[in-house]
3-hydroxyisobutyrate dehydrogenase (Pseudomonas panipatensis), 291 residues
Amino acid sequence: MRIGFIGLGNMGGPMAANLLKAGFDLSVFDLSEPAVRTAVAQGAQRVGSPAELAAADVEVIISMLPAAQHVKQVYLGENGLLAKVQPGVLLIDSSTIDPHSAREVAAAAKAHGNPMLDAPVSGGTAGASAGTLTFMVGGETVDFERARPLLAAMGKNIVHCGGAGNGQVAKVANNLLLGISMIGVAEAMSLGVKLGMDAEVLAGIINTSSGRCWSSEVNNPLTGAPAARGYSGGFGSDLMLKDLGLASEAARQVRQPVLLGALAQQLYQAFSAQGNGQLDFSAIVKLYQQG
Ligand code: NAD
């Protein structure tokens, strides 16, 4: 099966590599020449634009782009996919964008005769490389089943979340909670240490008590792996800021209060403004270590 892939960045690059390893033929497009060259060295064929990719003989097109503006440009733009793609070609967008934009692009695709799935992921760059991503998928059941073998080459947990946009809803809700829980753990850990406790002992208590969560156990801001390597790598604070912004915007559209989410967004915004956007999001604990 020939697949088109657009967006070969930190996530898309290793995802495309796993599709090649699984034996799929890949035609690829990215604005970054080094990213394309890496994929070509792994066996992919290059094309010059989304429209050229659409005109190629592909059955499925997957995109993995930074944000909604790039997704809209690639799908709806003048030289975009929908201008040229054959009806029936399955479109899968794995970028993390707001549910409203995902539904807008899916509706345009449907009007053009193309089924579309939103399929954002969790698992980070490590999961992308290992082929162990979780895919949260929105769209029709029949299209989900068609996509499943492809997604299985890149992930191990593939969940149908409902109609168009619901994959993004799941992603936004999860990352809203993740951002809030990380700040909560940072606050509690900082208080305990300031009051005289050893961080490792306190983490051990929390992780066998009712305060335990992923942020305290796997990615603890004082004792976890990113902390041990100076908060380099991992899930960047700017990416968390982006996802909290998506949650806040999605909440505004349906007049749903996200009180702690708004505060979490502001804390990550302040942290990013201090030049920390590239640090793992557990580094937010530094806000509690000032003064
Ligand atoms: P990235 O910036 O590393 O990669 C994006 C790629 O898209 C780049 O290679 C860029 O050149 C390309 N691109 C941008 N505009 C383009 C266009 N118009 N046409 C073709 N190519 C274009 O980003 P990433 O880390 O791979 O993240 C991609 C998406 O996955 C984002 O929505 C992000 O929020 C989400 N995500 C990232 C992680 C992570 O840990 N990095 C985890 C889960 C989800």
